[in-house]
């Protein structure tokens, strides 16, 4: 069977801030081919004592001081003060002590989950394909890494800056639409908007939808050719389910299970590939040193042979980083009825630029330009759909969202129990650093609206998740009002 017959839809779900070892390291005990933990790994604490990895991670409470994951923090985690060379992965405890100022608490960074605690992630990783070597694209935070998933580059940024509208690289959604294909980014709800592509909201409404829109598309079988899903980043009416520390990890496992259930019950299941991946490691321990990048994998915009590149962002303006090594390893799982059960992808290095590269090569053209050499030379993953006929096994997750509406009737369907989150939404909890950045980017968009539609709120005074959520909802409503007014004026 041709690959074009196996794949009509690619769906990517990108979760938040967890390392491979933290989430999947315990799977090595079930399958030695999975490059997880042997329980001999350790890091020194600030007293010089070795802190071993321990399989006793809690769903919530271990990481209520958000671990550092910006570029300087990650350098400490990678090298622990050593000068350059191959990362020794010995600075995670030291880096977390800098956030907690508590020796005992700094040890929590070495905890990892028992596979039985994460039944959705565990079952998908062991029943489909798990990647031993999927790395975040940058040893840094969320938005620069998500930029690689959307654009194949972060345009020289190693931090949380976003606004790439004047850059020469189009997002994968814009590429798809320009080529007459369909693509959409689904953010969770109107009080969240999209993380990292906020600046496109006003001018590119057809690129975006909400999770309820994705649910409808799954049920009707009318999925776009490419879909990118974002979880809920904050407590509001719903519980945050992104798994960003210190949100309840059970909520995220339930959300991943719900997405799988929707696709498994969809009429387009047999032609859909689902990639579940995390944007970056969130400061949590992983034992695999990120590899250096071949100089050919440069973050420059390629042009026809013999002509100079039209853009080169190296080095980055904040730290002088040459984008010459990848970030820390993250969980990545590929789900499709054409993936052999128990596949472990080894010996190949993937990163977030692999996402737009795979989608562009498959749906548009392998020779598509402009894009960076970094993206063009990255690994693609659809070759892992190697079976000649779709698998017939059928299992669903009993998630807290209510599995029964998504599960078709059948006598031979396996149902897998999933622990329900114990937390309840708490909009009054302190605003997270991630949400502060998001509010700032939404505010930048608000200031482009007509004055009569602006809220006039001082976003610097926001203290809670609820305040941030309410504000984002108001701006999203104002964006819609402005669109409607502009559309009316064109009639």
Give structural attributes:
28% helix; eight-stranded mixed sheet; Alkaline Phosphatase, subunit A; alpha/beta; single chain; two-stranded antiparallel ribbon; 14 helices; 491 residues
What's the arrangement of secondary structure elements?
Layout: H1 3-6, E1 9-15, H2 20-24, E2 42-44, E3 50-52, H3 71-79, H4 92-100, H5 103-106, H6 119-127, E4 129-131, E5 134-135, H7 142-151, H8 172-178, E6 183-187, E7 208-210, H9 211-220, E8 226-229, H10 249-264, E9 272-278, E10 300-301, E11 311-312, E12 332-335, E13 343-345, E14 350-351, H11 354-363, H12 373-376, E15 395-398, E16 414-417, H13 433-446, H14 465-490
Parallel strand pairs: 1-8, 1-9, 4-13, 5-14, 6-7, 6-8, 15-16
Antiparallel strand pairs: 2-3, 4-12, 9-12, 10-11
Helix pairs in contact: 3-4, 13-14
Describe the 3D structure.
The chain is α/β, with parallel strands linked by helices. It folds into 2 domains: 3-24 and 115-230 and 248-287 and 296-413, Alkaline Phosphatase, subunit A (3-Layer(aba) Sandwich); 433-490. It contains 14 helices and 16 strands. It has helices at residues 3-6, 20-24, 71-79, 92-100, 103-106, 119-127, 142-151, 172-178, 211-220, 249-264, 354-363, 373-376, 433-446, 465-490; strands at 9-15, 42-44, 50-52, 129-131, 134-135, 183-187, 208-210, 226-229, 272-278, 300-301, 311-312, 332-335, 343-345, 350-351, 395-398, 414-417. The chain has an 8-stranded mixed β-sheet, sandwiched between helices. A two-stranded antiparallel ribbon has the order 2-3. A two-stranded parallel ribbon has the order 5-14. β2 (42-44) and β3 form a beta hairpin.
């Amino acid at each position: 069977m041709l690959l074009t017959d196996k794949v009509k839809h690619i769906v990517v779900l990108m979760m938040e801030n967890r390392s491979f070892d933290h989430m999947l390291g315990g799977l090595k005990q079930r399958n030695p081919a999975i490059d997880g933990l042997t329980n001999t790994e350790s890091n020194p604490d600030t007293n010089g004592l070795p802190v071993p990895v321990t399989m006793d991670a809690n769903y919530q409470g271990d990481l209520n001081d958000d671990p550092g994951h910006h570029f300087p923090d990650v350098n400490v985690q990678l090298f622990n003060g050593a000068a350059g060379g191959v990362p020794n992965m010995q600075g995670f405890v030291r880096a977390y002590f800098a956030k907690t100022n508590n020796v005992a608490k700094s040890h929590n960074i070495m905890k990892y989950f028992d596979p039985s605690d994460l039944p959705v992630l565990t079952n998908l990783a062991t029943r489909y394909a798990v990647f031993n070597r999927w790395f975040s694209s940058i040893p840094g935070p969320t938005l620069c890494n998500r930029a690689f998933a959307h654009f194949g580059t972060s345009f020289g940024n190693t931090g949380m800056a976003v606004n790439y509208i004047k850059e020469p690289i189009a997002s994968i959604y814009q590429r798809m639409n320009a080529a007459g294909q369909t693509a959409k980014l689904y953010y969770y709800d109107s009080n969240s908007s999209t993380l990292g592509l906020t600046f496109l909201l006003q001018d590119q409404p057809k690129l975006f939808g909400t999770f309820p829109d994705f649910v409808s598309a799954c049920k009707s079988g009318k999925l776009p050719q490419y879909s990118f899903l974002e979880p809920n980043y904050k407590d509001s009416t719903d519980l945050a389910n992104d798994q960003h520390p210190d949100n309840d990890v059970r909520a995220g496992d339930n959300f991943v299970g719900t997405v799988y259930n929707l696709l498994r019950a969809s009429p387009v299941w047999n032609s859909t590939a689902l990639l579940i991946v995390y944007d970056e490691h969130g400061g949590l321990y992983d034992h695999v040193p990120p590899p250096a990048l071949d100089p050919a994998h440069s973050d420059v915009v390629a042009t026809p042979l013999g002509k100079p590149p039209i853009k080169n962002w190296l080095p980055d303006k904040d730290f002088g980083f040459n984008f010459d090594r990848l970030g820390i390893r993250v969980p990545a799982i590929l789900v499709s009825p054409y993936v052999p059960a128990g596949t472990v992808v080894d010996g190949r290095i993937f990163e977030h630029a692999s996402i737009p590269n795979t989608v562009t090569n498959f749906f548009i053209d392998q020779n598509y330009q402009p894009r960076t050499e970094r993206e063009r030379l990255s690994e693609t993953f659809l070759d892992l759909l190697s079976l000649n006929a779709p698998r017939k096994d059928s299992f669903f997750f009993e998630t807290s969202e209510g599995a029964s509406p998504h599960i078709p009737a059948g006598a031979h369907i396996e149902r897998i129990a999933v622990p329900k989150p114990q937390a309840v939404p708490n909009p009054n909890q302190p605003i997270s650093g991630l949400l502060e950045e998001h509010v700032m980017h939404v505010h930048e968009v608000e200031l482009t609206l007509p004055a009569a539609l602006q809220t006039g709120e001082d976003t610097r005074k926001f203290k809670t998740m609820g305040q941030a959520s309410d504000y984002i909802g108001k701006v999203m409503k104002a964006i819609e009002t402005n669109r409607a007014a502009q559309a009316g004026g064109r009639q």
